Amino acid sequence: MTQYLLIDTDPGVDDALAILMAHAHPEARIAALTITAGNVGLRHTLSNALKLCEVAGIDAPVFPGAALPLVATPEDAGY
What we know:
Layout: E1 3-9, H1 13-24, E2 28-35, H2 42-56, E3 62-64
Parallel strand pairs: 1-2, 2-3
């Protein structure tokens, strides 16, 4: 039985690997990705997600989400 996944993430290396593992699983299908800012900004995480989908052949919509945390001050590790 196929499991449809909605993955909400801020794709850096660890999340990219998890997305690839989900994509490779024979009983899972990525229905969509929702992307938020993490320890880098939304522009960077969204770019990571779109490139990952392109390179891996993941045919799922990618939706940008919150650019900033709703209750905390963001910390940027972009340096």
